């Protein structure tokens, strides 16, 4: 199987994830600006999750373009990533509806952490299939963003239990790290 089919399937799942997240936002009851106020936490959680899904989609695209062939291990690793990403609409809605309460916010961080681990496993599966001298292995290098993100997620999970704003700040900081596109893979493919 080529990486194009895997990418098309993944793109479809990611599009559905975004659709589900936006459909979870309910129309306010009332026509005043005050009717929107209770929806602010829901909207903010949606924005953060939309950014995360966009980051994964962008980096997943580059990752699969560095992939020369797909084997069973890569397929399963990709499904593992999609499983955790598919839980984002649930924890996003739960967190927003409960105004960033401790448990929903910690569970949100848990899904972010599991997604990061799953993405790392997908990278490893591709590198293992292509060999240690592959363009992807070279491009990944030290992968400082990939190493610091799980630390921020764990910190956010713990902090969410005591100070939910602090947890959200750490989740937001991790997203900001990845908003700057990771061009390592793209550069290595064009050299």
From TrEMBL:
The entry's protein name is TMEM175 family protein
Q: Membrane-crossing residues?
A: 6-23, 35-57, 63-88, 100-122, 151-180
Q: Where is the protein localized?
A: Membrane
**Similarity annotation:** Belongs to the TMEM175 family.
What are the protein's UniProt keywords? Ion channel, Ion transport, Membrane, Potassium, Potassium channel, Potassium transport, Transmembrane, Transmembrane helix, Transport
One Pfam family recorded for the sequence: TMEM175
Q: What is its main location?
A: membrane
Question: Could you tell me which InterPro entries the record lists for this protein?
Answer: TMEM175-like (IPR010617)
Catalytic reaction annotation: K(+)(in) = K(+)(out)
Q: How does it sit in the membrane?
A: Multi-pass membrane protein
In terms of superkingdom, the source organism counts as Bacteria
Native organism is Roseateles agri
Q: Which residues form a coiled coil?
A: none
């Amino acid at each position: 199987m080529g990486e194009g089919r895997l990418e098309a399937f993944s793109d479809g799942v990611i599009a559905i994830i975004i659709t589900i997240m936006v459909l979870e936002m309910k129309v306010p009851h009332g026509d005043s600006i005050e009717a929107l106020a209770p929806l602010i936490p829901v909207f903010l959680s949606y924005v953060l999750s939309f950014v995360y899904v966009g980051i994964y989609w962008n980096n997943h695209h580059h990752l699969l373009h560095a992939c020369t062939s797909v084997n069973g291990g890569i397929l399963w690793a990709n499904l593992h990533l999609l499983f955790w990403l598919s839980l984002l609409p649930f924890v996003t809605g739960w967190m927003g509806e409960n105004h960033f309460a401790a448990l929903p916010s910690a569970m949100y961080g848990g899904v972010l952490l599991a997604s990061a681990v799953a993405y790392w496993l997908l990278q490893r599966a591709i590198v293992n299939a292509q060999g240690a001298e592959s363009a992807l292995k070279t491009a990944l290098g030290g992968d400082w963003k990939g190493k610091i993100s799980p630390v921020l997620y764990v910190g956010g999970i713990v902090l969410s239990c005591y100070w939910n704003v602090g947890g959200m700040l750490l989740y937001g900081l991790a997203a900001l790290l990845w908003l700057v596109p990771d061009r390592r893979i793209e550069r290595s493919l064009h050299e």
